[in-house]
Amino acid sequence: MSDSIPAIVLGGTGYVAGELLRLIAGHPRLHTAAILSDSQPGGSVAGAFPHLRSAYPDLTFSSLDQIDALVRETPRCALFSAAPHGVAAAIVDRLLCTAESARTHIHCVDISADFRYTSAGAYEAVYKHPHGAPSRISQFTCAVPEHLKTSVTPHVAHPGCFATATLLASVPLLTLGLADPRLFVTGITGSTGSGRRPVEGTHHPRRHSDLYSYGALSHRHVPEMTACAAAASGVTAEINFVPHSGPFARGIHVTVQATLKRPVSTAQAIEELAAFYKDCPFVRVIDTAPRVKDVATSNYANLSAVTNGSSIAVMSVLDNLNKGAAGGGMQWMNRLLGFDEGTGLTAPAPGWT
Asked: Is residue 330 a part of any domain in this protein?
C-alpha cells in the first residue's frame, strides 16, 4: 500500500458513502483510511454495510476528532464528502483548515449540495439556511466531468444525480445550437435517491408497482441544472423539470425535449451527440432507447435521441448512486490526483439487477 493514497469518506451510513467505500475497495491507487460517523464512532462499517464485509471486515467508523488528527498526520489524502447538505460545508472547512495549518494536502470532492453554487446567496436562496463555509466556495468548481476537462480550482463539487442525467442530455443541445433553450425535462429516479432514512416516498408498499411525480416545476435542483448548463454551454436555458419516483431501487431515466433550431434527422442528431462525447469514455450514445438496467450500478451513462422534424427528445440513463454521485465524484478525484479518470470505474453493469 506504499504507493496508495489514503481516502477519507464523510457521510456515515448513507447510501452514497457506502457506494464510495465500494468503489475505493476496488481502486488500485486508493485505500480507505477512515469514514466519519460522529453518531457511531467505533461502530462496525460491515455492520452498516453488510455487502462490504469482505472488503472491510475490521474497519470502524471514526469521529471527526479522529479524522482531524489523521489529516494533520497524513501528507496527502483524498477527501470525499457525502455528508448531508447543510452539514458538509462546515466539516470540509474544518478539515481543510487543519491541513493548511499542518501543511498537509487534501484533494476534496464534495458530493453534497454545499459547494454547487458560486455564491452563498445562491445556495441560501435554494436551501433556506446560511452556508456553512462561504469563504470556501471559490475553491470549488461544480461540473459534470464530461463538460469540464480540468478544474480551475483545487477542489470540485459534483452535481446531483438528476442534474447529471439532465446535463448530459441538455448541454449538447445548447452547445451545438440544436435546440431552443427552453427545455422540458421528465425524470424518473429509483428509491435510493431519497437516501437511507425511511420516508413515505421510499417505503416499499407505497412505491412498489407505482409511479408518481413530486416537486413538479419546483424541484430544488433546477437552479443547479440551469447554472451548470450555462457554465458548460454558454447558453442560459429555461429548464422545466418534472421529477418522478420510480418503482425500482437504483437508476435514473431522463427525457429532455425541445424545439429544433435547424432541421436534423434522428440519425444526424445521434451522430452529433456521439461526436460531442467522442472523448468521454463513460458516456455512450446509442441508436436504441436507453434502458436503466444496462447501466445500473455502473459509472456509465447511455444516451439516445429522436427527432420528428420540429422537436428533439434526448433520453439519458445512469445509475444515481454511481455515475450520479460516487462514481462521478471518483472521476473527478482521479483527475485531481493525476490518475486516468477511469481508474477503478470501468466495471460494466451486471444487467440483471
From this structure: no
